[in-house]
Amino acid sequence: MKTAIQNGKIIMNTDTISVLENHSIVIENDIILDILPNTEVLKLYPDSTIIDATNRAIFSGFANCHTHLSLTLARGIFENESYANTPPFPGPPRRSLPKISTEEQQIMVLLGAIEAIKSGTTVTMEVAQGIMNYANELQKTGLRLVLAEQMSDRVSGSIGEPGKFESDQQKLEDGIERIIDLYTKWNGYDQSRVTVALAAHAPDMNSPKSLQELRVLQEKLDIVSTIHLNQLWGEVQNIKDNFGTTPTEYLEQNNFLTSKLVAAHCRCMTKKEEQILGKFKSSVSFNSSIAARRGLSPNIKDLEEYGCSIAMGSDNMDENMIEVMRTGLFMERVRIMDGRNPNPNEVYKWATQNGYQSLGINDAGFIAKGNKADLIIVNTFKPHMTPQTDIVSNWVHMGQIQDVESVMVDGKWIMKNHKILNLDEEYIIKEANQIAKKAWNN
Ligand SMILES: [Zn+2]
């Protein structure tokens, strides 16, 4: 069984980004079998099911390299309750996240997944503690998933909160066990549509011993690692007080930096730290929307120049990668006071190909023969997407969630003509609203 997507503009990304017209993408099983002129399709693949993509563009789906799907529960609240960026830390208190049941948590996760799919995401790295509670429900969405089980062994105090660091051996052992359990159950599931990664919470949440043990485990399992790094000024203060160094140097000292690390945020950083991270060729998840909401910005151009690969993530309360991509371009242009750089092609690559690579997936994230069929169809027959002088620029600067018409992962449609196929969207939205209402009122 083959599918041929015809008549759309195909966004190719080999050495440079280019647009291919009058061609078709032929998909067989989970793979892009061929990209060839429209006129050749029925000659070579007469049994293909034809999908007409006239007035449409076919882009790679987005890679969201850092999110916490169940934190949709905090939407409308945590966006506006940021920690302080100047002492005293952590600053004015924010409301604590209410406890909800496992079933309720599953609904909040699926709410985030629906938003992710509707905005054109095809792979997401979910970072959380206790992913086992909802991994099965989440994988049913059809999304490609990297499940990063997170652990911390700090006895008390939260991220960004100064205070004496004490390690809890039991928390350490439990965390390692959770990662191994998740890996055993889910890594490689469904032709590796689901893989497992490990997450240290943050430098100020993880002891030297926990970082070292996680690195040994990473090496043994051969998986991607991640951490919230240089996220908050309170974290920087904590590491200075407890270990007399900076967060990135603390990770270097404890062997946690590698080219298979996705460092999320990287906002509160010295030049020296940026250079260290670059030296290890770690990936940076540029979580632009949350960064803007927090009033902080990473030095993306510098990190990239020092050797980091730039990927993108949404982080809390938000799964819209179109907005993440656009906000990233805007923020970086404002920060470096350059109205031309980064250009849309670079930012598109951050949000797609670089993201996939950072998650250990090298055969997806760009449309090419032989790659995994993870792609999206975008309706460009819209006033804000016209004229199509530069379709990638339009997508980055003007794209809207409603433009995403269909989403394919591993050769299977998970959204077709705006309909989410594996979930009851209306039910989940109604339920999620009730759950949040009840939880925050308590
Ligand atoms: Zn996060």
Give an account of the 3D structure.
There is one protein chain. The protein has helices at 38-44, 102-118, 135-139, 169-186, 189-192, 208-221, 233-243, 247-253, 271-279, 288-294, 300-306, 321-336, 344-358, 391-398, 425-441, and strands at 2-6, 9-13, 17-20, 23-28, 31-37, 48-52, 56-60, 62-67, 121-128, 144-151, 194-200, 225-229, 261-265, 283-286, 309-312, 375-379, 404-409, 412-416, 419-420. It is an alpha/beta fold and 442 residues long. It has 2 domains: 2-60 and 368-420, Urease, subunit C, domain 1, CATH 2.30.40; 62-358, Alpha-Beta Barrel (TIM Barrel), CATH 3.20.20. The strands form 3 sheets. An 8-stranded parallel sheet has the order 8-9-10-11-12-13-14-15. The protein has a 7-stranded mixed sheet with strand order 3-2-7-16-17-18-19, covered by helices on one side. Helix 6 (208-221) links the parallel strand 11 and strand 12 (225-229). The protein is globular, with a radius of gyration of 21 Å. It starts with a strand and ends with a helix. The model has no long low-confidence stretch (mean pLDDT 97). Zinc ion (ZN) binds next to loops. Zinc ion binds next to loops.
